[in-house]
Amino acid sequence: MRDAEEFEELRPLLFSIAYRLLGSVSEAEDAVQETWLRYQGTATRPVSVKAYLSAVVTRVSIDVLRSARVRREEYVGPWLPEPLADDPYEDPARSAELADSVSMAALLLLERLSPLERAVFVLRDVFAFGFPEIAAAVGRSEAACRQLAVRARRHMDEGRPRFEADRREREELAARFFDAVRDGDVDQLRELLAADVQMVGDGGGKAPALAKGVVGADNVARLTAGFFPVLTQIGAVLEPRTLNGQPGAVVRDKDGALIGTMTLDVLDGKIQAIRSVVNPDKLAHLGPLSDAWALAHEVRRARRG
């Protein structure tokens, strides 16, 4: 009973480590479950339950990462992480690192690292584990882990986006963006978008993505202004919501079933990137799903009408 209670207390941390390593809610939950099974099978009680469980979930996640590389190379269209509605782990002392590391942009940067670099970076820079604990978790010497940390940090710093620091400003800009999207206001959208804004959609070949890759304020403004008002016509609703610690939204059909999600990268008072996920495999944890293909047919019919 005591073991179960301690495990449940640490579950938020274990999930948060696994999610950052895997970019997948479902795979992170599986990694946590596998960690519990291995913990149950241990003959001796570890000195530090936190260190032991963190090491196990890290090793499980590294194994999953290595096997996932081939699947992601064969993935249909752009690959994006599974949207995260709430990060269960909280640490006021590291709130900035935790929020930044869970953003879509940061998770995509982590994809560029080797599994070991990724694990060391997450454990050290996000969760502030000591190098002795990290070395035990990844099966390398402390010196090797320090080198991995330096390499990973350099790669992350080279590509790391600098998000708007003021959360209220980001949320206000996002609210104006979603209002303009609902209204189909091309001019207002152009004002809110960075000149080189990117819009990426992940359908995984299992749902029609709005945009696999569209660049430029005018192109993105026209695309969103032309599409979302038609969705509204057929009863769909755009609900602003924080996702992956960023301004975002969920889109639902007239029955309340989920169509997809959007997240916004905001910098210098402009939207730099829009990422939408409509692959149903990546949305099931957020609730009942809409029939994306039937919805696309309804949209085409509404446009003709």
CA gyration radius, whole angstroms: 21 Å
The main β sheet shows up as: 6 strands, mixed
Helix amount: 55-70%
Strand order of the largest sheet: 2-1-6-5-4-3
Contiguous uncertain segments of 5+ residues: none
Our measurement of the CA-to-CA distance between the termini, rounded to an integer number of angstroms, reads: 62 Å
CATH class of the largest domain: Mainly Alpha
Structural class: alpha+beta
Strand segment count: 6
Query: Can you tell me the number of structural domains?
Result: 2
How many helices does DSSP assign?
A: 12
| CATH second-level architecture of the largest domain | Up-down Bundle
The averaged pLDDT comes out at 92
Features:
single chain; 305 residues; alpha+beta; Butyryl-CoA Dehydrogenase, subunit A, domain 3; Nuclear Transport Factor 2, Chain: A; 2 domains; 6-stranded mixed β-sheet; globular
Tell me about this structure.
- By secondary structure, the protein is an alpha+beta fold.
- The protein has two domains: 158 residues, Butyryl-CoA Dehydrogenase, subunit A, domain 3 (Up-down Bundle); 138 residues, Roll (Nuclear Transport Factor 2, Chain: A).
- The chain is 55% helix and 14% strand.
- A six-stranded mixed sheet has the order 2-1-6-5-4-3.
- Helix 10 crosses helix 11.
- The protein is globular, with a radius of gyration of 21 Å.
- The model has no long low-confidence stretch (mean pLDDT 92).
